[in-house]
Specification:
CATH architecture: Roll
CATH topology: Pnp Oxidase, Chain A
Bound molecules: flavin mononucleotide
CATH class: Mainly Beta
Strand order of the largest sheet: 3-2-6-11-12-5-4
GO molecular function: oxidoreductase activity
Low-confidence stretches: none
Structural class: alpha+beta
Pfam families: Flavin_Reduct
Number of domains: 1
Distance between the termini: 50 Å
Largest sheet: 7 strands, antiparallel
Strand content: 25-35%
InterPro entries: Flavin_Rdtase-like_dom, Flavoredoxin, Split_barrel_FMN-bd
Protein name: Flavin reductase family protein
Number of strands: 14
Organism: Microtetraspora fusca
Order of helices and strands: EEEEEHEHEEHEEEEEEH
Length: 208
C-alpha cells in the first residue's frame, strides 16, 4: 500500500466535538458544573463519556438528573475557567497537581444558574441551548476508565435568537457550537452546504 500519511501516536483523539457544560447535583444538594466534549445525539438520547473519577460521573450514577448546556464560541473563556477545577474532594490522584477542588463552580466560571423545569440541577442562563435530561443508563466502558452515560432529553430550551421564528427548528445559520479541537477552542466557519434532509433549508426555499 502506498500512502503519504504518517503513522503517529497522538496523546488525545479529540478530533473536534462541541463543548457541553454539564450541571449535576452533588451529595450535599449543591450543584456541580463541568466542561466536556465527548458527547453525541442518538434521537432524543445524548451519549456522554466521562472519566470515572470525575464528580460529574459520581453524581450521575447516584442522582441521574442533569442539564446539558451548550455554550457558544464567545463563551470559551468561561469554559476554560472551569477547566482546571473538579468538584471532587479530595482531588483524584490522577488530577493532583494539575486540578484543584472547587465546590462553587458557577461562581468560579462567572456563569449564572437559572432554575430548570423538569430536573433539579440548574441551567446555565447564558448558554443558547440547554437540554434538561436524565441519565437512563450509566456503565463503565471497556477500559474501565470512563463511564458511558445515556441521557434521555426531557426538555429543550433555546435562545429565541437561534430559533427560526414560528417554528420548532434551531436555525443552523444562527447557532454556532463551541468546538473542542485537539484541546483548542474553535467556532464554526461559514456554511458549506446542507444535507438533503435539512428542514430549515426547505423552509427558506418555501419563503423565497
Ligand atoms: C473543553 C473540555 C472538554 C472536556 N471533555 C471531557 C470529556 O468529554 N470527558 C471527560 O471525562 N472530561 C472532559 N474534560 C475534563 C473535565 O472537565 C475534568 O475532568 C473536570 O475536572 C471534571 O469536573 P468534575 O470532577 O467536577 O466533574 C474536558 C475539559 C474541557 C476543558
Amino acid at each position: 500500500m502506498t500512502t503519504d500519511h504518517l503513522t503517529i501516536t497522538p496523546s488525545v483523539l479529540y478530533f473536534g466535538t462541541p463543548v457541553a457544560l454539564l450541571s449535576t447535583e452533588n451529595e450535599d444538594g449543591s450543584f456541580n458544573l463541568a466542561p466536556m466534549s465527548s458527547a453525541w445525539a442518538l434521537g432524543r438520547t445524548i451519549v456522554l463519556g466521562l472519566g470515572k473519577d470525575s464528580q460529574t460521573a459520581h453524581n450521575l450514577a447516584a442522582r441521574p438528573d442533569l442539564v446539558i448546556n451548550l455554550p457558544e464560541p464567545a463563551q470559551w473563556p468561561a469554559v476554560e475557567r472551569l477547566a482546571p477545577l473538579t468538584g471532587r474532594d479530595p482531588v483524584p490522584a490522577r488530577k493532583q497537581g494539575a486540578f484543584r477542588y472547587e465546590p462553587a463552580k458557577f461562581e468560579a466560571a462567572g456563569l449564572r444558574p437559572e432554575p430548570s423545569e423538569t430536573v433539579r440541577p440548574p441551567r446555565v442562563a447564558s448558554c443558547p441551548i440547554q437540554l434538561e435530561a436524565r441519565a437512563a443508563r450509566v456503565r463503565l466502558d471497556v477500559t474501565g476508565e470512563f463511564q458511558v452515560i445515556e441521557a434521555h432529553v426531557l426538555r429543550v430550551h433555546a435562545d429565541p435568537r437561534i430559533v427560526v421564528p414560528g417554528t420548532q427548528h434551531i436555525d443552523p445559520a444562527a447557532w454556532s457550537p463551541l468546538i473542542y479541537n485537539f484541546r483548542h477552542y474553535f467556532g464554526l466557519g461559514r456554511e458549506l452546504g446542507h444535507t438533503f434532509r435539512s428542514e430549515t433549508a426547505r423552509l427558506s426555499a418555501r419563503g423565497a
